[in-house]
Each structure stands twice: as C-alpha cells, then as structure tokens.
Design a protein that fits this description.
Blueprint: E1 5-10, E2 22-29, E3 40-46, E4 50-56, E5 61-67, E6 82-87, H1 89-92, E7 98-103, E8 107-112, E9 117-121, E10 125-129, H2 135-139, E11 141-146, E12 150-155, E13 160-165, E14 179-185, E15 192-197, E16 201-206, E17 211-216, E18 234-239, E19 245-250, E20 254-259, E21 264-270, E22 281-290
Antiparallel strand pairs: 1-2, 3-4, 4-5, 5-6, 7-8, 8-9, 9-10, 11-12, 12-13, 13-14, 15-16, 16-17, 17-18, 19-20, 20-21, 21-22
Length: about 300
C-alpha cells in the first residue's frame, strides 16, 4: 500500500482544510484526507500554492488538485481556493493516461500517453491543448519542468524546448524578449539532462555534467554568483559550479545541486533555514555543501523523488 505524507506551508495545497493557513511542521499521512481512494498514486507535482496528484483508475488517469485556483490552475471551474483534494472533471473527461505533470506558480501542464500536451491556469484558462508542438517532438519528451511562469521540455536527445516569462533572461539572452509565447527550441547549444526554475531564475545540467545558471541573481544570490557587495543581476547561460552534477532543484529564491558524487550544495534565500545548513540567514551568496544527518551524504542515493519548491 502506498503512503503519502505532507508537510510545510499550507494555503490549501496540502489538502487538509482544518490546518489551512498554518504550517504543518511534521509529516502527516494523507490516507484519512485523500478521499479514501485505494488507487495507485502515479504522479505528484507542487506549484506556488497548489498541488496536483494523478491517480491510476482502471481505464484512465484522474487528476486531483488542492490549493489556490484563481487562474484555474487546478483544472477546476471554481476560481476559489480549494482546501481538500478535488477531482478535475475537465481532465477526467479526456479519459487519457497521463505521462508527465508539472505545476508552476499559477499554471499547470500535462502530457498524455497519446502524445497530447495541455496547459491550464494563467494564460491557458481551465484547459487548453498546446498545438504548436508536432507529435514527433512530443514522442521524444523525457522531462517536463514548470517554473514560476515557465514551462520547459527536455527531449531524449537533450534538446530543450522553452515557453513563458523571459523578464530576467531566464529562457533567452535577448533583452527585448520579455515573453516567449509559444514553445521553441532553446538557443543553448549543449544537450541538457536536467533543468529547474525558481520564480525568475533557472539552473540546467548538461550531458557533460556542467551546471549553468540563467535569470535573476540580484535578490539573494540564488545562482551562487557573488560579486561582493554588488550582486550580478541577470545571468545568461553562465557556468556557475565547478563540480560535475546530475540533478538541480530550485525553490522560489534558492537552489540545490546534486553532484555525481551524491553531495548536495545549496545557495540563495535561507531566512527560514530553507537550505538545511543548520542556520538561517537572509541569503547564502555561494554554493555551500549540505550535510544530511551528522555525516557526509553517503546515504544519498538519489533525490529524483524529492521536490524542493517555493
């Protein structure tokens, strides 16, 4: 039997109405909240203030959402905040299997197993099929990543397709392009194996294991680039880390890197101890090694099922 535990900030996104607008400081099981569904949990994604869970039904997958829904980012008609996990009827009516799901700050995105892409939330409405991607591209999608106001697709060959806000050059180095309104292939000329976005910054890992940063670095050194008292503002595809890496993760204004040696490094916003360094501070200006427990991270095998968000 699968067990789902939730913890952290709860503006409705944890699906526990009785503790809404408070912090859940210890893990709580969702079995008594989650509609008593005895179905397999297939996918989970968490956005700014909303979360989506995909359950496997007999003939198709069902999406349940909880949290803020002001832009219909839960795929639910009612634009009010929802405090318990509720089925998205509009997605259920598709009667499809879902391969990928992602949540941004106020939008969501799914890719179905019959090679269709759908967006919902800010700029999409309750559900919109994305028709600018041909089926050969969709067939080769390996990862779907949603950021603050961004969506990215990594293909099997490492090609990167991007869409969304570019106010801080987090997608493209053209200062005059504030928004990329349709999916297009990134100008970054190296194969990508992973990418992550915060609200306006991003990290990516190349096939060679090199970590590049892009976007805003000015508030809290969330890209780990410290220029002394003057933080570098917008960064355009700059190599930012000396070690080889396999995964990257971004929160609102902070970042994590998992190296090939299974070491974890973090930088950026740390006012509530987000970086797990054992202390709180306004910002951590360069990447610092993070220890789990009281030893080196020898027990860290993979962080592929952990989501550092917001």
């Amino acid at each position: 039997m699968q067990l789902l535990y939730v913890f952290g900030q709860n503006n409705g996104e944890l699906g526990m109405k009785e503790v809404a607008y408070s912090e859940c400081t210890s893990p709580k099981p969702m079995d008594k909240y989650f509609l008593n569904k005895k179905k397999n949990i297939k996918l989970i994604s968490k956005g700014g203030y909303h979360a989506l869970i995909v359950l496997e039904e007999e003939n198709y997958d069902v999406v349940y959402g909880s949290g803020q829904n002001s832009y219909q980012q839960l795929g639910i008609d009612d634009k009010e905040t929802i405090y318990t996990y509720t089925e998205s009827k509009v997605i259920s009516e598709l009667k499809k299997r879902i391969k990928f799901i992602g949540c941004g700050y106020s939008h969501s995105f799914i890719v179905t197993e019959d090679f269709k892409c759908y967006g919902f939330g800010l700029n999409f409405g309750i559900l919109k099929e994305i028709d600018e991607l041909n089926i050969e591209i969709i067939k080769r999608i390996k990862h779907l990543i949603c950021g603050g106001h961004h969506t990215a697709l990594i293909l099997e060959n490492g090609d990167l397709y991007i869409h969304g806000d570019n106010s801080y050059q987090e997608l493209d180095n053209d200062l005059n392009r504030k928004t990329i309104t349709k999916f297009e292939k990134s100008k970054f000329n190296q194969p990508i194996i992973d990418i992550a976005f915060g609200i306006n910054h991003g990290l990516m890992v190349t096939k060679l294991g090199e970590v590049y940063g892009c976007g805003n670095n000015s508030q809290y050194n969330q890209l780990g680039i410290d220029k002394g008292s003057i933080f570098e503002d917008n960064v355009t595809f700059e190599k930012i880390f000396p070690l080889k890496a396999q995964r990257v993760y971004c929160g609102y204004y902070h970042s994590f890197i998992l190296t090939n040696d299974f070491e974890i490094y973090g930088c950026g916003w740390n006012v509530s101890g987000e970086l797990c360094l054992g202390y709180a501070s306004n910002n951590v200006s360069t990447f610092q090694k993070i220890l789990i427990g009281n030893s080196e991270n020898s027990d860290v095998v993979s962080l592929s099922d952990v989501c550092f968000v917001w």
